[in-house]
Amino acid sequence: MADTRHTKVLIIGSGPAGYTAGVYAARAMLSPILVQGIEPGGQLTTTTEVENYPGFVEIQGPDLMIKMQEHATEMGCEIIGDIITSLDTSKRPFTATSDSGTVYTADAVILATGARAKWLGLPSEDAYKGFGVSACATCDGFFYRGQEIVVIGGGNTAVEEALFLTNFASKVTLIHRRDELRAEKILIDRLMKNPKIEPLWFHTLDEVVGEDNPKGVSAVRVKHVETGEISEIPCKGVFVAIGHAPANELVKDVLEMHDGGYVTVKPGSTETSIPGIFAAGDLTDHKYRQAITSAGMGCMAALDAERWLAGQE
Ligand code: FAD
Ligand code: NAP
């Protein structure tokens, strides 16, 4: 028979939003349970230096997340390495089923499932995922020592990935569909000064070209967005860095959403369209999407849950 656990507050997700909610809910004596999901520590575990989290001039992303986990644990939040596979919000207590088979019942739920990397959706991109195509420079950059690499995108992630990859690659081509980057000025400045990086403006990825024996990438075909002209760039690695999509699978078609799948919360609050279900971090936020704003919303969610639970008694 499935193991069933009841908690006052179930926190789903272990990024800055989830762990901060864990700290606050534990300090409110709510004995929260936090389920970490497939990526313990969340998106920051896929990056290197974080330079904009107050209190740390510079800290490695994975180290920051370990500190947050330790903080939540120390305060009394129970942290469980499991994945929630479904959430029933139709009756209270809410019921969450997990990959391990454990069923969690909860008086309130804080959703902090964050976001995941977006892909271009090309068949050739899919065919070479894990064989030269990646969405995580920190994870895979080391494999491309002395090789040529391309990075697709023009935001903070693309620029940071391009900069990071120069630690390994002989050359990095940053392919962007416009001639203007949306990354922060300080990062653009570093990019432009780096002799190993060459931007390729007004181009999109048309096809990843590779071989099957052994399986790997040999080039990319890129298309000029105005002329349609196709050209080929030799490379061994393709890093897709075109943003992230909210991880809303548990509540799709259940909660109100906006901007293509971000969970809607009441202004100035973390209350969703179902009382007792709260949402925080990148799952709700298409605008700021930062560790500090996610942590802030995690705090708000725990305080909102505490007040809502008190009102139910
Ligand atoms: P996430 O960090 O996305 O975490 C989501 C969590 O939910 C994960 O633990 C996942 O395992 C869990 N989860 C998902 N589905 C389930 C499920 N079904 N069951 C259980 N758990 C689940 N921001 C900055 O402020 N500074 C930076 O320098 C910076 N650098 C970045 C570099 C990169 C490469 C990337 C991708 C992002 C960066 N960001 C940075 C943005 C920052 O990482 C995010 O804004 C922040 O991590 C969002 O926190 P979150 O808690 O909302 O969710
Ligand atoms: P982003 O800011 O949404 O940028 C995505 C980039 O990819 C844009 O330049 C976009 O082009 C391009 N793009 C999107 N779809 C595309 C497609 N189909 N084909 C080609 N190009 C495409 O995403 P992000 O860079 O991952 O950043 C996400 C959030 O995390 C942001 O809020 C960012 O500030 C934050 N973050 C912060 C840091 C930091 O603070 N150091 C580091 C990383 C991320 P257009 O510009 O033309 O739209």
UniProtKB/TrEMBL annotation:
<keyword id="KW-0676">Redox-active center</keyword>
<keyword id="KW-0285">Flavoprotein</keyword>
<dbReference type="InterPro" id="IPR005982">
    <property type="entry name" value="Thioredox_Rdtase"/>
</dbReference>
<dbReference type="GO" id="GO:0019430">
    <property type="term" value="P:removal of superoxide radicals"/>
</dbReference>
<dbReference type="GO" id="GO:0005737">
    <property type="term" value="C:cytoplasm"/>
</dbReference>
<keyword id="KW-0274">FAD</keyword>
<protein>
    <recommendedName>
        <fullName>Thioredoxin reductase</fullName>
        <ecNumber>1.8.1.9</ecNumber>
    </recommendedName>
</protein>
<dbReference type="GO" id="GO:0004791">
    <property type="term" value="F:thioredoxin-disulfide reductase (NADPH) activity"/>
</dbReference>
<dbReference type="InterPro" id="IPR050097">
    <property type="entry name" value="Ferredoxin-NADP_redctase_2"/>
</dbReference>
<dbReference type="Pfam" id="PF07992">
    <property type="entry name" value="Pyr_redox_2"/>
</dbReference>
<keyword id="KW-0521">NADP</keyword>
<dbReference type="InterPro" id="IPR008255">
    <property type="entry name" value="Pyr_nucl-diS_OxRdtase_2_AS"/>
</dbReference>
<feature type="domain" description="FAD/NAD(P)-binding">
    <location>
        <begin position="8"/>
        <end position="298"/>
    </location>
</feature>
<dbReference type="InterPro" id="IPR036188">
    <property type="entry name" value="FAD/NAD-bd_sf"/>
</dbReference>
<dbReference type="InterPro" id="IPR023753">
    <property type="entry name" value="FAD/NAD-binding_dom"/>
</dbReference>
<comment type="similarity">
    <text>Belongs to the class-II pyridine nucleotide-disulfide oxidoreductase family.</text>
</comment>
<keyword id="KW-1015">Disulfide bond</keyword>
<keyword id="KW-0560">Oxidoreductase</keyword>
<comment type="subunit">
    <text>Homodimer.</text>
</comment>
